[in-house]
Amino acid sequence: MDCITSPDLLRQQCRAWRKQGLTIALVPTMGFLHAGHMSLLDHARLRADKLVVSVFVNPTQFGPAEDLDRYPRDLEHDLALAEAHGAALVFAPDPAAMYHPDHGTWIEVPELGQRLCGASRPIHFRGVCTVVAKLLNLVRPDVAVFGEKDWQQLAILRRMVRDLNMDVELVGRPIFREADGLAMSSRNVYLTPEERAKAPAIHEGLELVRREVRGGVIDAEALTLIFREHLADKLPGARIDYASFVHPESLAPVTRVAAPTLMAVAVFVGNVRLIDNMLLEV
Ligand code: PAF
To answer: Whose CA is nearest to atom 6 of ligand 1?
Structure first.
């Protein structure tokens, strides 16, 4: 397996594969890979001849007060895992190789990008769309695989691909959870042992809501209250950034769970902002 840091070399290698008639799958990541990422790699590996994994902590998707500098990094470990899971190539560029000093072109999906996480992270999805578009342009994969923990990200990227006629299939894969239900995230390492022990309450709250919906409670306000009370009880001190019921594609708020609805939440546990979601079927 090769590790490439130059965008030009990445483009050349992918072009050579395509000339040989080989298909390519891309899994974009910010590194510090965990079992959730591995499930993406394993799926992607089955979908194409060559698997490319990008490891890039993209500075343009972090706000000024966010955790860019302390975001966990471990390239050696990432390379070993990527190789063990069948990657043909890891692309791990420096920010300077990805962004010219006068970089000035951005991709925005304003309506979807301002909802949910976008309300408290105003430039986040602009950075995500721009870097993913750059990676898609460099690799030109047949398929790109993303985790559904970042459901909003995937919905926005699908809209970008549709609106810009990009020639790639985007695939979402289910959330990968720890044994106690906490959604896997590179940011879980920020949690103190006490916070980590209580954090599964977020997923339990989502499960509780799912049971209530199955039992006939479909009013979004009532369901939000059930989730809030559960967290107040099991995760005291946590601050809910949002707990929202939305249409799974448009992300527009819904007042009743009368059709498949996404419940999406972002919760500050101490200083750590965790997101999770659940698709509620009726
Ligand atoms: O989901 C992530 O890790 C990032 O947002 C992504 C898609 C790799 C873009 O930097």
So the answer is: 29
CA of 256 to the centre of ligand 1 (A): 31
List C-alpha distances in Å: 232 to 158, 189, 217, 239. 35, 23, 20, 9
DSSP for 136-154 reads HHHH--SEEEEEGGGHHHH
Q: The pTM is what?
A: 0.98
Ligand 1 binding pocket, CB closer than 6 Å: 28-30, 58, 61, 128, 131-132, 150, 153
Q: List, for residues 81-115, the tens digit of each pLDDT value.
A: 999 999 999 999 999 999 999 999 999 999 999 99
Which residues is 181 bridged to in the sheet? none
H/E stretch holding 166 reads: none
Active-site entry in 34, 37, 77, 203:
37
- Model pLDDT, residue 282: 85
Mean pLDDT for 258-272 is 97
Contact 74, 169 (CB under 8 A): no
**Atom of ligand 1 at shortest range from CA of 147:** 1
Position 43 scores a pLDDT of 98
**Å from CA of 170 to ligand 1 middle:** 13
Give residue 30 CA to ligand 1 midpoint distance, Å. Answer: 6
Q: 178, exposed or middle or buried, with CB in 10 Å at 0-12, 13-18, 19+?
A: middle
